[in-house]
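Lab notes, practical 5.
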Amino acid sequence: MADPPGCCAACATCLLCPYSCQWITAKKKKMKGLRTTKCDCSWFLFLFFVFLFTLVWLYFAIIILNDLHNFNEFIFKQWKSWFDWSPVLLIVTALLITYSSVLLVLALCLQLCCQPLKLHWLHKVLLILTALVVAAAFTGLGIKWVEEWRSAQISLQATGPFLHIGVVGGMTLLAWPLASFIYRTRNTGLRVFLLLVYCTVMIALYLAPLGISSPCIMEENQLPPKPALIGHRGAPMLAPENTLMSLHKAVDCDVQVFETDVMVSADGVPFLMHDEQLTRTTNVQAVFPERAALNSSAFNWTDLQQLDAGSWFLERNPFGTAESLSAGDHDEAAKQRIPSLGEALEAVKQSNISIMFDLRPENHSDYQNFVNATLGVILQSGIPLQQVLWLPDGFREQVKQQAPGVQQVYGRKRLQNEKEPLLHVNLPYQDMSSEEIRQYRQDNISVNLYVVNKPWLFSVLWCSGVSSVTTNACQVLKEMKRPIWLLPSSTYLMIWIVVDCVSFLIIIWAFFLLKKCSHRSRPAESETDVLLTKINSLMQE
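Output from the prediction step:
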């Protein structure tokens, strides 16, 4: 039998080897009568869906990177051991998507070369394992990290137009193996079904931009001002978090607000600390091993001053940026101690920026005394009260009475029957839509969203009109002069039409070209079938 047009025996063998794990030439395979069975087709469909499943997970993995530091902190609280999971996430995801992609490309090439799709049992097992791993990842995401689903929805505002182009391109290329299969199969029902499904999908994709919306589809002159930057615990990628060095690095990044967390020591001194235990960001296990598991507020100020609050940053390298520090910064980081709120207020006052903080832990039985101690330090510091942004909800009315100049920031959306208008809100970036951000902006309500680290997310929020963002990556967002992309609606409409037209023409060309190739190969195939029939008749006689 003649080899299929455009595919030599050597090429077919090279394709069959990794897919079927057999070194047999195409001619020998056909002589053995191997054909693609319904079972083989089912495994091809399974491979295709595993590829799509893994591709979706790759997208999620990229989105998750914005918030992965929170996951690392969560794991530390559970295991008491620090590990950066971002390389693991990226490597495992890359391996899964590469494996399924290579198998799918091999299968499509085999289909174009008219070779049987005999997937080896080892690949079948690995595909099932791939599907299970990705399913487990999605399940864990849904149980422990539900807000990331909302992050994915926001990400579509940044990637939607480009995902549309990519999907249209992929489905257009799929027309070649599909046309090859349709012209070779004798099952009319299957041919009609596949054509209907493919045409339906393509029509839906061609019209998909009607449902795609992005705040970055706007004219240049409609772009809102760049959001102000708020340093999340300072500049934690450049210095140990919640230290004076981190505060000064944040000032160098042009942040307008230093965001931090305040606790009160056993002897009534407010100090900067996020975690309820000191183990992650100090050497408390070495200095006070028998008390390391105690709440941070159980230590007096004298004990806290003995702790090293900087070496952990150099040892654990939480953001992968510690090795980029200069020698001077390296030495300064190693000398950091836990700062008191008074020291932080003095640094903020000298830097002419504002400070915003939470007071922890909110469920402490002595919380009112914590509020009183914190207010006392603020009033004694001499800092202009309008530079203090108060986040805690507990005893807020008391704070308004004792320090009326302090700016009240609320961690919730406004209510319908609000007694007094909100002027500042501070929310996770997943909790506000672009429409809500625009509405708050029109009503002169300052909206700060946290924690925003990646340029794509910052771009979406910038286009939406958010007032400010809390970030770990102030040094990165500082350098952005405009959103990553900004398209006038007329330009996007033109791109949409051109992409759809080019795709349609390529699909028509693919079906026309493969139809001509199938007609050329049919005479030879018919003569071969007649010869095989005669040989079979002679053998039976």
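Observations recorded by the TA: The longest helix spans residues 489-540. The chain has two domains: 9-214+488-521, 228-479.
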